[in-house]
């Protein structure tokens, strides 16, 4: 599914042979708008009740100010400048996967912090390295992301808003429209569909770009939704690096 590379045992913590523990760390000065412990409890319920029965990769979530070296992390920061200041980029300082939720940026874009946190967690669970792709019938490779195509579709758990997510069938091009369930909220009707307020990253093997479900989404994406230091940008950088490596002359 990832351009010919062996499919990894997703959800297994690298080097540990077990399902991960995910630490939620709040380094933001802007208010989250919710108690972090309550948010983590809701996300644990979403993971256990809705996500794991479909995707099969559990994790233990907890809120802390001092994550362990082996923890994956979801870190709340004010914005990308804060990520630079704290040194939070693509992996933790101990080499573990990380997702970032930018509080000021999220709120300025008119989005919910809780939904964004749900989005980041679910995508990190399945593709922690942001490196997997699925090929459609059109020959193009689509980023193996669980929430991008449905990212503004939401539902509530204990009164807290969380993000919709796609099912494995979403990335299986042989399914006929409407033949199976493609996402949790049943908003998607066919494989690889981008909903009106969603987007996806698509590659031809040489470069990667975003496609959008509507012109309105594209306008918002380019004018309001700052994606600096997000998984999507890291994924595009990885694609560029692979292409450059293939083109580099042999040093034999």
Report what the structure shows.
The structure is a single chain. This protein is an alpha/beta fold. The chain has one domain. Helix content is 29%, strand content 18%. The protein contains six helices and ten strands; from the N terminus they run βαββαβααββββββαα. The protein has a four-stranded parallel beta sheet. A hairpin with a 2-residue loop joins strand 7 and strand 8. Helix 1 runs parallel beside helix 4 (113-126). The radius of gyration is 18 Å and the shape is globular. It starts with 20 loop residues before the first strand and ends in a 5-residue tail after the last helix. Residues 1-16 have low confidence and may be disordered.
Quick structural overview:
It is built from 6 helices and 10 strands. The chain is of the alpha/beta class and 252 residues long. It has one domain.
Mean pLDDT rating? 86
Number of domains: 1
**Spatial strand arrangement across the major sheet:** 2-1-3-4
What gross morphology would you assign?
globular
Which structural class should the secondary elements be placed in? alpha/beta
Measured distance between first and last alpha carbons: 31 Å
What's the SSE blueprint?
Layout: E1 21-26, H1 36-55, E2 60-63, E3 72-77, H2 80-86, E4 98-102, H3 103-108, H4 113-126, E5 133-135, E6 141-143, E7 154-157, E8 160-163, E9 199-203, E10 208-212, H5 215-223, H6 231-247
Parallel strand pairs: 1-2, 1-3, 3-4
Antiparallel strand pairs: 5-6, 6-9, 7-8, 9-10
Helix pairs in contact: 1-4
